[in-house]
User: Fold these one by one.
Assistant:
Number 1:
Amino acid sequence: MPSGTLLYAQSGGVTAVINATASAVIQTARKRKVKVLAARDGILGVLREQLIDTSKESIADIRALAHTPGGAFGSCRLKLKSLEEDRAKYERLIDVFRAHDVRWFLYNGGNDSADTALKVSRLAAEYDYPLHCIGVPKTIDNDLALTDCSPGFGSAAKYTAVSVREAALDVAAMAETSTKVFIYEAMGRHAGWLAASAGLAGEGPDQAPHLILLPERTFDEADFLAKAKSTVERVGYCVVVASEGIRDADGRFIADAGGRTDSFGHKQLGGVASHLAGRVQDTLGYKVHWALPDYLQRSARHLASRTDLEHAQAVGTAAVEYALDGMNAMMPVIVRTADAPYAWKVEAAPLSKIANKEKTLPAGFIRRDGYGITAKARAYLGPLIHGEAPPPYGADGLPRYVTLKNVAVPALLAPWHE
Amino acid sequence: MPSGTLLYAQSGGVTAVINATASAVIQTARKRKVKVLAARDGILGVLREQLIDTSKESIADIRALAHTPGGAFGSCRLKLKSLEEDRAKYERLIDVFRAHDVRWFLYNGGNDSADTALKVSRLAAEYDYPLHCIGVPKTIDNDLALTDCSPGFGSAAKYTAVSVREAALDVAAMAETSTKVFIYEAMGRHAGWLAASAGLAGEGPDQAPHLILLPERTFDEADFLAKAKSTVERVGYCVVVASEGIRDADGRFIADAGGRTDSFGHKQLGGVASHLAGRVQDTLGYKVHWALPDYLQRSARHLASRTDLEHAQAVGTAAVEYALDGMNAMMPVIVRTADAPYAWKVEAAPLSKIANKEKTLPAGFIRRDGYGITAKARAYLGPLIHGEAPPPYGADGLPRYVTLKNVAVPALLAPWHE
């Protein structure tokens, strides 16, 4: 049994399959006889020395993580700044690692987390503390550099494509006397990957979604409204998928129209879909409906992509192997070796080439008119939603999601003051 | 082969399983060697003499209807008024029936449709036209009288409970540094059945959903905000499920706060969840997120309840049998014969006892504090989400939903002027 502890932490927004990565990490480490601690609420739990002893969990519960959405140990939104600005925090991390004999640190997150893992690894070297830092990819935004895709994205993409296809059937059935324009708001503040994946729901100019609004293209309201109108006149209705990150020519987020006030004099929270719905109704006079799935799109484990699940498990397994085999400042990434039939493998990539980068939709994925996706995009996106991996359901008709015991490891250091 | 035609029409908002009813209607009628026409866009298609010849569809496609959401022939929102006020329309219906030898009329809808079917049956009798009118129950609102539940509701309820359970896991994982209050808006303008069904996602004071806002109870903002605050302080986060139909003490719909204007000076469409989110953020200062699934909740065939699907098929089959056996002005309803294990049967009930009635949540289903459901509600709701009935998926990772050919029957009458 190797001496030392492996510490696993989740970071940033959770996904339908990040716990599948955690499950693979813990199972692989157990096979290698390595003790695994998990940080409560991500890096915050390291700073606070709130660690969880995963050896207290049954193997059945660890396996059940693979079909449970959310973040089993808690995650957090906490971006560490530069080593200079946040030195005290980085040093505290090393102190906690040292106190608990952490030799392997696995940080499961997106761009920011890759950056944090890289900095931690540099500081450890500076202090001569023997630590192997491995980033583990995860984000529904699919904006991580180098990796062909990010675990979590495929399931959110499948949710998006299926939901848009289903809602479009509803709209089509009712359009003659009811809603003519339906707007679905997809997550993606800077990159349009999820909105683009809605394009898989249909093909050709008359199939929904008819208009996809991507943050990679400037939003032109007049042009959008004209296209919505001509679609309604041609098809009978219009299904729009809008990325939350679209901006106008002045660079203003449409979602931040801001300062809305309702009749009670209260500020109103907005969003892209609600704003566009108002504009369609006011200018075109159509009945309009809109959906904002919000967290539903990133927690819909019931509709996970099997491909995505397999990616999530594979990067978890590889991350443990990389760490125990002595790699440092690396991340297992997904490499596509063929589109059709889809084939992929996991390879190691340096965190320095991933940290703080952001991958947006390539121009070649966006239809010339800006409102749809190309065959190239379909070839890329298609395989990522392939296959189903439903969770087991209980006799009560609900998925059997597991809740871990999350037994705390006693703190050894003085409390940390934020 | 009985002489005459059976006409089937869908009415009002569609559901995840209304096509399963259509599938059962057509299959049962085919077995009895009866010709089935379907009205395009519901009763509007009858008025316009836009009828579809279902004999042109393959048996495989008719079977596939059972796993396809939306309304395969189109539905409509068109409430006929009294026989006096809308006499010309009722007479037109009889004219179209006569022209196409329609002897059996099956109208698949909610309260209003039951009323229409009843009136049509009365007018036919008045004109000595031999017609058997059968209402077929359907509505995600579950507000139909007499029947134990309405086909379509169970699947929407399952979608609601599963989605809230999944989103709650997301919120729980992130609450320490991110969203503390999450608000899910459920359909149900007058009855809180869907919001109540979210209660199946958890049990006890600390499990999500923590607060359910029902239209059957007056919304008291100060009390709601105090409860949200105490929940966050106790649990770390608060998941709220709000029915779109909640009203304040003056009877005003919270969703109709109305008159919102954004910073561009445009009117903003609102909703209950967006309004409540603004109030929580402004008064409690918590980070808040909200979801509005809108049509997704009534078209999510991928997450249908098997029980609901079986109900939908059974009422379709029974409706054809009732009609062909000579019943008139009746509706097949679901009768519950036992809670645990759940048992049910279909019985005939007179449309006169169903038309224009609205079934709201019984007081005994609502927790004393007004923000949750009772054991009695769980016993009622639980069985309705039992069992899964996923659609087949294609190699592309998407459900294989069918699109019918919908071949038009040539019109025999002069065009109708609305």
Number 2:
Amino acid sequence: MAEAEPLKVALLGAGVVGSQVARILIAESATLAARIGRPLELVGIGVRRLDVERPGVDPALFTTDSAALVARGDLDLVIEVIGGIEPARSLLLSAMEHGASVVTANKALLGSDMAALSHCANANGVDLYYEAAVAGAIPIVRPLRESLVGDEIRAVMGIVNGTTNYILDKMTTAGLSFDVALNQAQELGFAEADPTADVEGHDAAAKAAILAGLAFHTEVRREEVFCEGISRVTETDIAAADQMGFVVKLLAIARLTDEPDARVIVKVHPTMVPKTHPLASVSGAYNAIFVESRDAGQLMFMGQGAGGAPTASAVMGDVVTVARNRLRGASNDMQTGYTTRGVAPIGDATARHYIRFDVADRPGVLAACATIFGDHNVSLQTVQQSHLEGARRQAGFEARLNVMTHEASETDLAAVVTDLHLASFVGDTIDVMRVEGH
Amino acid sequence: MAEAEPLKVALLGAGVVGSQVARILIAESATLAARIGRPLELVGIGVRRLDVERPGVDPALFTTDSAALVARGDLDLVIEVIGGIEPARSLLLSAMEHGASVVTANKALLGSDMAALSHCANANGVDLYYEAAVAGAIPIVRPLRESLVGDEIRAVMGIVNGTTNYILDKMTTAGLSFDVALNQAQELGFAEADPTADVEGHDAAAKAAILAGLAFHTEVRREEVFCEGISRVTETDIAAADQMGFVVKLLAIARLTDEPDARVIVKVHPTMVPKTHPLASVSGAYNAIFVESRDAGQLMFMGQGAGGAPTASAVMGDVVTVARNRLRGASNDMQTGYTTRGVAPIGDATARHYIRFDVADRPGVLAACATIFGDHNVSLQTVQQSHLEGARRQAGFEARLNVMTHEASETDLAAVVTDLHLASFVGDTIDVMRVEGH
């Protein structure tokens, strides 16, 4: 039997993830060939600079002309692990227009422009796979796209950023302040020198957009994701949550509003989660995605959300699947027939809320506060009043209220906070945190 | 545009799962049609008896002649939720020979005869999907078969039987004996009147065979799975595990022996798992699958392992995928090019072991015991000696030893136990439990 013609593969990027992908393509070529039914041939690696030591890879493979590489016209598959919007976007569009299927780990690009990429894949009859773009090694795209496609997903809540999970973990277990925990994370290499994208939730928001699109069969753009980071989370927040049986996690949340005309709520914010909830025990740099659906009920997926080898694992799973599709002559258009739901304004999002503020300790004040909540249709689940002492005490405001509301909309809650601020018997600082999970 | 010809679907079984599948096929037909790109038409439901009330389903659909139903010749898809080997096996083979793709939730059948079914699917160019057969609603088949197909799975460990997990949970949290916990589970409907298949591990063993086959790209039969149930787990075992920082779980375990000629270890047994391990906190009727792979590292998948709606969710995910494959004219032969690895004898399996036995409390005894372990190449991690009092004490054997070994083979460990039994300074009862996870 003649040796079958190999499938031609180009790799864009040779950094932390790219070097692992190259390693697997080279070292595991026999296994991959057996699983695909045809060998893969790595024909080129697009890089920014050639003067970098890259052991184990034939130097002749590297090129700085990625645009020419993806436009060769004989490629079966292009793997993109550069990250960022450009030049990744142009390169992938060109690759697909030249007939290649695409595997990408680029969350920023998919979060900002899934529509154009999907459309280009469909128009050219090629595959666009991106398991590695959300939650690293955790298989979540196939479960949402395929395993649960006969079900109705109600909500997706994910710990999708390891840096913030590490920082919140340290604040919780070691009682550190945000600044000290961030410094430790930076020293250990868990946080970048400029940590903005992580701690302000931008990275999580890009992933939230992708998750919401997968879960609800619609297109969601990064700009439509409500986003609040963890830089304003205080030790007091963490301690108060702990005392009430909660931990604080930065969650990416996507859910539907009630029918009819269900729209997508999609948001990233620090969240109080009951200690008994499966997400509460996901610690350190691990990621986890929690899914609630009509028939399957509650599901959780946990694993490493970043790192070269874990991300490469997800990339390679896509590579094998796309290569098999290629051999069968069938691209797997999983977006067919999807509905277009709008994204609801954040004001329509509902959640339980925890609110902490100080009040004057005199008769009638508690009733006046309760009236403010009631005026805006926010009903109270628990109210806890404690007497403040010493340094924690602000002149005229001797009592602290810890309030847990029932489910209330962001709009109603904001109106409550405004009215509390205007009330003479309420101190200046009003802290609010959203609560999820049962 | 003319209405597209619907895909014809037959359902075998209308019990707990079947009635949920029928409900979804009927109530969600518009959504399913949108996701598939073509409507599904339920053309018949094979049942044993017609004289059963089945509200919401057109009575004309039911037939007791399932053999004729699957042999119609115009079916696109047959869904089998009868369970058991026959007549399910013959019906599915006939369905595939008549050109229909198959979705099944039948773990017993797949655990005993995956080879014949896979071969029949390939020979007839149809799909065989079975997400619901392992761990109910938890998406595990696609993650193992596709997401991790570019990686190397090292081990799979699963809590795949809700009944035994519930019983062990009750023994742990409420201090119940096995018999009392089993009775409670039966009263609550979590255990069958004849609980043998669950408590003796047979159900878990069938799932272990399927998981091992998926993880290691080979065929494993139920008869090749080493199987030990939980009926001999005592309150003392649970308490001793707790005291050492472990919980007891019934695990289905599949891993490879070392290269070269790596073979599959596949087994089901009560296992001590560290309390810090992700599997330790999976409680009640939940299932979970823990995966270790070369590149992805540690992953865990958690969800409901049984029940009508959760199982139907997994079935319907397969139905949509198979229907899409059908429309593309491409069956998804995911078994291509797989290797055939043998199953290793259980004696080759290695694990840490916990051993508890009573000894005479006199000088030299501990050294003599240690010598027995050393003679069989079993090295000790910790030895804890305690003095027995009152009723717990057997004449002549006043001290209890709690021993934790390093990794040792079952063969070596069995030799140790035999020699301990022969030693005059060791009491009659020697309790052993395997330990997994770090």
Number 3:
Amino acid sequence: MTDSPGGSGSRRRGRPPRTESAGTRDRILAAAREEFAERGYDKTSVRGIAKSAGVDSALVHHYFGTKEQVFEAAVEVAFAPALTVRDAVLAAPLDDVGERMTRVLFGLWENSVTRKPLLAIVRSAVNNDVAASVFRRMVTAQLMRRIAGEIDAPDAELRVELAAAQLVGIAMMRYVIRIEPIASADVEQVIARVAPVVQGHLTGP
Amino acid sequence: MTDSPGGSGSRRRGRPPRTESAGTRDRILAAAREEFAERGYDKTSVRGIAKSAGVDSALVHHYFGTKEQVFEAAVEVAFAPALTVRDAVLAAPLDDVGERMTRVLFGLWENSVTRKPLLAIVRSAVNNDVAASVFRRMVTAQLMRRIAGEIDAPDAELRVELAAAQLVGIAMMRYVIRIEPIASADVEQVIARVAPVVQGHLTGP
């Protein structure tokens, strides 16, 4: 995401590919995801991440920089599957895009491995302005605008966001706050109800 | 909400109606709403609420009990307008219920006075299990089940929750995380797009 010379992205690519440091970096990232998911952005500290990864805080700063940059790197990892969503959505025929988008998103939330970083993002973005702005930047640039580019309507971006809002709201109620009966409803039943709504927002009249 | 003999509700009603203590109680509640909205459940302390209300912590405990009970009382206040939603929804003819529900909810979020406690609830429920369970209990008992009772369908509760999810998702994107263009879109434009979807969830085929 950060492609500027000093950003974490280029720093990572510029570093010599020693197995040990790659392993350490991944361990720090995994610890960061756990910490952000458990505690949210505010209550997570670089020191806590370092401790949970079994390394010194200085090493976390060395690899990533500030707490905001660690968060951005952790979110970037969580965004890899989101880019799958985007690509799946972009590859689908336009009249199938609602179901495709709905299925991929539920797939991410139903999978316990991808659910954790998603929870981390949601919890942090809801509670902290820095995290919210990282989230806004990535979601807007990587997802919303790209999907909107496929839709031939003057209000394409608003359409994508209304569709996303339906999915975000269900994720909140089913996976984050866990309100019944939607939390335990059969996922196919929910998809069957939601996909046409998402499609309607995207390409409806 | 708490109607048991020891609950905050009966304690409040049982207390002699001295102007001073009523004023103090309201000041504590207002401070609690501010603190929960700013910091979320986890980072809010009874001591911080007391300090911001200009009273001793012991007085907060005296009026409300534990932090969870202060939170419940603060949420209860935030829920008063939600009951307006419910009553408006229940009073509407069934084929107008989608627009009514949408309008009342946007009314609450557009109003800076009611937005703050809503933000407090969302932030806390997303980040803390105790807060989430207070939220679940209130939303389920006071809103979802009551509205579902008006809808003649075997999956009435799921319908209400899918409708609510659309509104929750828009609130998240527009008011909490503030993603553009939905954050600045004309509210009437958004209502016009969303009300039919809410109606469809509630009473559609």
Number 4:
Amino acid sequence: MSSVEKYIKENAKSFEEQLFNFLRIPSVSTDSKHKGDVKKAAQFLIDQLNEIGLDKVTLHETEGHPIITAEKCPHEDRPTVLIYGHYDVQPSDPDELWETPPFEPTVKDGRVYARGSSDDKGQSFTHVKAIEAYMKTGTDLPVNVKFILEGEEEIGSPNLIPFIKANKELLKCDMVLISDTAMFGEDQPSITYGLRGLAYMEVHVTGPNRDLHSGVFGGAVENPANALAEIIAKLKDEDGVIQIPGFYDDVEPMTAEMREAYKQLPFDEKGYKKDLNLTALHGEKGYGTLERASARPSLDVNGLWSGYQGEGAKTVLPAKAGAKISMRLVPDQEPQKIAELFSDYVNSIAPDTVTVEVEEHHGGYPVVIDLDFYGLKAAAKAFEEVYNKDVLFAREGGSIPIVADFKKVLGVNSILMGFGLTKDALHSPNESFSLKDFHRGIQTSAKFFELLPEYSE
Amino acid sequence: MSSVEKYIKENAKSFEEQLFNFLRIPSVSTDSKHKGDVKKAAQFLIDQLNEIGLDKVTLHETEGHPIITAEKCPHEDRPTVLIYGHYDVQPSDPDELWETPPFEPTVKDGRVYARGSSDDKGQSFTHVKAIEAYMKTGTDLPVNVKFILEGEEEIGSPNLIPFIKANKELLKCDMVLISDTAMFGEDQPSITYGLRGLAYMEVHVTGPNRDLHSGVFGGAVENPANALAEIIAKLKDEDGVIQIPGFYDDVEPMTAEMREAYKQLPFDEKGYKKDLNLTALHGEKGYGTLERASARPSLDVNGLWSGYQGEGAKTVLPAKAGAKISMRLVPDQEPQKIAELFSDYVNSIAPDTVTVEVEEHHGGYPVVIDLDFYGLKAAAKAFEEVYNKDVLFAREGGSIPIVADFKKVLGVNSILMGFGLTKDALHSPNESFSLKDFHRGIQTSAKFFELLPEYSE
């Protein structure tokens, strides 16, 4: 056992206590009455980073909550890893559904229950402790490390991208390391190597200038709700294929290697259906469920409204109908281009008997990390040494916009080294994090830094 | 001028004052705190009917508000006319939008402003005054008349049908006379000879057992909102033809005479579109706008809901979606049969990836009075003599369920002799009624009774 490993083992209890102190700070970024608490959490990290001996530890004020940077770069000729994490948390409400107080960490069955335990205080803190193990044991840090820790992830990171753009030199690196995702299952280390992008649209259909009596006008005037339904029905065919012209033009076809990686994933379709109480699944023809949910683009109605939604019957021919419709994107689809194709198509199929307006909400780029990237290989090896099990490579269906932004602005890949589990209840009452994975996370991080130089050669 | 006409002319002012007293009673049937007022309005009519010398004037208590009957049947060999009206009114709220108090009748530019002025106190009172003119002048009443006046029309007449069924002998008649509709335009007498029926359905589509993250599950799980839109889109084709198998089987085709009657109606399609702020109308191919709105069946979404309807973007794949969908029916479509056909069709096109439930709200039978019916002809002639203008025969797109019920239970046609105008603002603030039409209504009613015997021969 190396002195780093020994240090991590011997300080396990102390690391937990420090994490609990971190979790006691209710750093809810969306709630202005917690502004002081968010600052307090930032100060907690500043103290940590100073204490372990990092250089250039800096708290950068923004228009919102602060951004923290720090670094230790002992080797000009070795890779630089930029560690990203966030110290803000989601609100705890509904508080009455928590079995223990959200900001009083409570350990049950080897899990710590507290808001932020998994997302992302517990996960991001692993890297701080891994680097501490090198610094405090006088072990040469095998790579260069930099930190960027923000306090606004739960509110959409409004100040992060401008900061990155303005500080490219400070943040210059060879890869980003992020622990803010889940493993494929308990004791099953996994690396997320792909995330879908997003184009989120809103469609408004307007017919007559007022709600009409459906008896008096029904049959003579186009009904905006019927028209909207017809528009939505034309967005996909019966095989689940999206009908927007040009929609698939930039979709990178799945390679044999990718499809093989999907086959390796231990997926229980029966259990998946049972969990959702569905007798049948549905998606794009020719692809498996996991592929449809992460490697292929999708289109979903997220919201729908028109006319009378109350109890009983109201004979109204509504003046308006609306829908929120979003598309998950895969490389190399561009959110802006997809939004335009959607808008053009919807306008082209809209009848001239109604007025259709299409607006765009926020979007995000899809991202896939090449499985040949040496950082991924080193991370996989580190996981395998600690967990004693082969890593699964998986793509996720959701979006983490910052990953695409790091690629765009800094030109680097991100390694999504998640230590969470889907049962962690992120954003929900009774969020928790496995303490076993907290410790294995620290070990995996330390191992990753140790292994990375040889993979980079 | 006959003594009846003279009496009506000489008592014009007194009739107005009596109507205003009737309008001062806030007989809001839906509001239990006005229960005493509804009773007071009933008593007002009882006093009127007794005062003019009708027989068997009776107030029948029900589980709700009372029903009044009365009659004068001097001629065994002549037709009997059952006059239907209602003395209850809609609530007056929002009161702040009334320019004058809703229960203090105010005359402006020849119109009386008050809740119930047109719907239906003012209109139904015309017949009371017409009969009074015969009785008070000692003129032989040319026909037999009966009254049925209810206090629950605005709450769906829950006690009326059972009462009619239980009192068929008391209500035995050759036709029903109802003044509770609007004329086609100012100074343009019109008779509504058809009303559409109604089948009102609600469709619930359920997918997964909970709202899902559209990033994680989008593409793999059928979206209930998309599925609902696809179901709705299949209810009609691009020509506006309803696709439910068997839907048109019982539709009575329009005769050449009917279509000719439609052509006679002074319809300004340009003005109609302008009023609704529409550049184009839409409906079943092969029919004109008025035909589509009243002589042909229709299908409309009345309400639609699913997922997130708030501001901004929420990436939810909703667990549920729902719609209210109603169909207007024409003879000889039966609401119950149509409801079943709808339900069968929706179930047959629903994908097996979701659960679809269809429920039925209230329905109503369509009705059309044969234009050859002598009562209609007598009513038309009476209108023409008083208004000095040819009557228009029109069908309405809405429903007055009681008309179909009179046909079903008593086996008789109804004559819809409306004296209102669309600008009367029924159910809205500042309801009003033209006093000129109030007086012409009394004259038309009296003339109708005078002319009816010769048309019945």
